[in-house]
Every structure is written in structure tokens, then in C-alpha cells.
Amino acid sequence: MSALFEFCLRMGDNTLVLGHRVSEWCGHAPVLEEDIALANTALDLIGQTQLWLGLAAEVQGEGKSADDLAFLRDAWDFRNALLCELPNGDFGQTLMRQYLFDEWHCMMLNALRSSTEKRVSDIADKAIKEASYHLERSRDTVIGLGDGTTESHARMQAALDYLYPYVGELFVADGHDEAATKAGIAPDLASLRDGYDAALSATMAAAMLTIPDDKFAHKGGRTGRMHTEHLGHMLTQMQWLQRAYPGASW
Amino acid sequence: MQWLDDVPDPEIPVISLVDLGIIRHVEWVGETLQVTVTPTYSGCPATSVINFEIEKALREHGVKNIILKRQISPPWTTDWLSQKGRAKLEEYGIAPPQPAGGPAQCPRCQSHDLEKLSQFGSTPCKAQWRCKSCLEPFDYFKCI
Q1: What is the pLDDT of residue B47?
Q2: Per-residue confidence band for A119, with pLDDT thresholds at 50, 70 and 90
Q3: CB-based contact B43:B37 (threshold 8 Å)
Q4: Position A104 in a domain
Q5: pLDDT score recorded for residue A1
Q6: What is the pTM of this model?
Q7: By the CB < 8 Å criterion, does B118 face chain A?
Q8: Is B72 at the interface with chain A, CB within 8 A?
Q9: Range of lowest pLDDT (A10-19, A77-86, A152-161, B61-70)
Q10: Which chain A residues are within 8 Å of B41, Cβ to Cβ?
Q11: pLDDT digits 0-9 by tens, A47-97
């Protein structure tokens, strides 16, 4: 499969899976404003998914749509980073996951604005506006809760300890990533790491949180080699309608 | 363009699609009217309703062949809101976008003593603010 196709799947599956996860909060968030904020974030991510998977389907050239790719693939065909599929946990953990992703997402989209593939830079130009807005909120919330009460601080530290080992995967390139970099479609993933680490350090310092020393990274989501057990469960919900009534539409 | 200026935005009906700045081009290609639309937010659920409303309005004016083109680049920005649209928003109670990133004044009492309640609001394009003078909450059209 082409480097561009794989690349679009990886971008689109990130936003699809994270978007679905975040949407699980709809109607359950601690206060109305947060509920609305989470739903809006999810909506932006799903919207970006339509662009990425739409392009993936176009590049694939088999007459499929973004919906086909979203609803008719099983867990092993998904190419999202593991971070995106992890369960929501409490509100703090959800916002910590969002922050860890948003920081990477903004750097990635910013780099993609100079992609040699115009269809990719067009999507990045659009998506970065939304992603920057997400980052502003997730960063503020992480700082507010980290530097909050004893309880909120403890929960945010626990969230960071749990999620941090899933950050590394975002920067590890495989053959497909290298091909995309070589073709000028995407940046070298490793080149984003220093900027990310610096931003993370600044935020966590302001949030009074400690970044774990260990750089161990869980991997396997972006390559599809091995997802966590959580993705399959999520897909049974997300794809329920198409699984129960194949081909249903309205 | 004038016909489309009569089509209200489905979520904020006080302004038209033209005021919103999403109609980028209208041109005849032979017998076909080609309308280029730039979506506001990627996931805005109003997008499909907007396309439907455009087609409906043009058909009512007797246009038979219509092509709607989606153009995502350059991305939509609130700079494209018309002056007329901004004034209508304010009158309706939605503070228009400002480059400074927050509302200039309370759309009801014009006070400058404002606070942000949430970065997000009832639609993807709005945030929630409150006026500390008249104590009324109000929508602010996010600047992007």
C-alpha cells in the first residue's frame, strides 16, 4: 500500500479513535460547560477524521468512502497510536490524555503545513486551527488540576504516570513513516521529540507534576502489530450498527 | 450571490451564509452553476444542512444544474464574516469575534467587565462568556 495511504490512515485513525473516546463523555461530564467542551472537541476530531480517511479512501482508489474505512475495518486494521484508544478513566485522565495528544498533534500538523502533498497540507492548515484551540484548553486544565487540590493533584500525577509510557510511540518511525518522510509527505517523527519534551516540561512544571524518568514506550498501535485490549471493545460500540445491520444507511 | 444572501445559517439564523463567509465562489460553467463552499469547522454538523439549503434556494430561483464544490484551502477564518454579519450577531446577542481573542463588550449592556465561562459553546463556532455588570451569560463567536 502507498506511503500516502498509510500515512492518512494513521492520522485519521488517531482522530477517529480519540474522537470516539472523548464523545463517550457526552452527557456524563462533571459540569455542563465541560460536557459541551468535550463534545465539541470530539466533533472537531471526527470532522478531521472525515478529511483524513476521505483522502485515504481516495488514494486507495477502491471506491470506498471514509465511512467504509471507519466502520468496516476490525481492530487489527486500525493504525492509531495506543494513547488514543486508552480508556477515559476519570475526567483528569481524559484531559491528561488529550493534552499529551494535543501537544503532539499541533506539532505534527504544523510540520504538515509544508508537506509536498497539497491535499495533506490543506487538511493540516484547517485542522491546526482546531487543534491549537484544543491544546489551549487541555493545557490550562492540566495545569489547573495539577496545581489544584491534594486530590486533583494526586489524580493528575497518577494519570501522567499511567499515560506517559504511551507517548513514545508517537515518535517512533517504521518503514511506512520513513517512506512518507522521504516522499516529503510528512516530517521525520523523531525530529518532533525535542520540541515536544520542552513543551511537556514547561506544562508539567506549571502543573506541579513530575514526568516519569523511564522513557519506556508501549508500541504497536500505529503499525497495527498489537493494539491494547481496549480498542476491540471500543469498536463493538462504535461499529455496532454496521455490525448488526451491514450496509445500513439513511 | 444575492440569492444566497437570503439563506440563513441553520444554527445562527440571524446571519446569512454569505455573511458567514463560507460561499467563496459562484460561477456559471456552461449551463451549470458552480458554488464553492468552505466549511467552518471540520466536524460542524450544519455542513450537510447548509449544502441542502443552498441547493434548495438556487432551485427555487429556477437554477437546474448545480454543482457544490467543497474547498478546504485556504481554511475558513472569522475574518471572512461580513460587517453586516458582525453587526447582526451583536444585535442578536452574540459577541462578534475579535483578534484579541475575547469579546470587545457585552452585547446586551456594552460593559467591558467580562469573564470567560468556557472556551466552547452551543455550536463549534462559539464560546461562553458572562458579563459581570449585567450578570447575563452570552455567546462569543470564536476568532479563528
Answers
A1: 85
A2: very high
A3: no
A4: yes
A5: 60
A6: 0.93
A7: yes
A8: yes
A9: B61-70
A10: 43-44, 47, 130
A11: 999 999 999 999 999 999 999 999 999 999 999 999 999 999 999 999 999
Q: Is residue A136 part of a domain?
A: yes
A118 vs B contacts (CB less than 8 Å): 73
How many Cβ pairs closer than 8 A exist between chain A and B? 65
Q: Residue A249: inside a domain, yes or no? A: no
Answer yes or no: are the C-beta atoms of A61 and A68 closer than 8 Å.
no
Q: Which three cell numbers stand for residue A225?
A: 502489530
Q: Which residues pair with B26 in a beta bridge?
A: B35
**Is A250 domain-assigned?**
no
For residue A127, what are the CA distances in angstroms to A24, A82, A113, A149?
22, 21, 10, 34
pLDDT in tens, B79-115: 999 999 999 999 999 999 998 889 999 999 999 999 9
* Degrees to nearest 5, angle at CA B4 with B1 and B9: 135
Q: Find the mean pLDDT for residues A168-196.
A: 97
State which residues form the domain around A52: 2-244
CA distance B21 to B123: 17
CATH number reported for the structural domain that contains residue A224 in this entry = 1.20.1260.10
For the CA atoms of B94, B40, B119, A96, what is the dihedral angle to 10 degrees?
A: 170
Alpha-carbon distance of A30 to A15, in angstroms, equals 23
Split into its structural domains, chain A has a count of: 1
Q: Which residues of A6-18 are buried (b: 16+ CB within 10 A; e: fewer)?
A: bbbbbbbbbbbbb
Neighbour-count burial of A31, counting CB atoms closer than 10 A to its CB (0-12 exposed, 13-18 middle, 19+ buried): exposed
Terminal-to-terminal C-alpha distance of chain B: 24
Confidence label for A210 from pLDDT (cuts 50, 70 and 90): very high
Closest residue on chain B to A130 (Cα): B41
The answer to whether the CB atoms of B42 and A40 lie below 8 A apart is no
Buried-state track A142-152, b at ≥16 Cβ within 10 A, e below 16: bbebbebeeeb
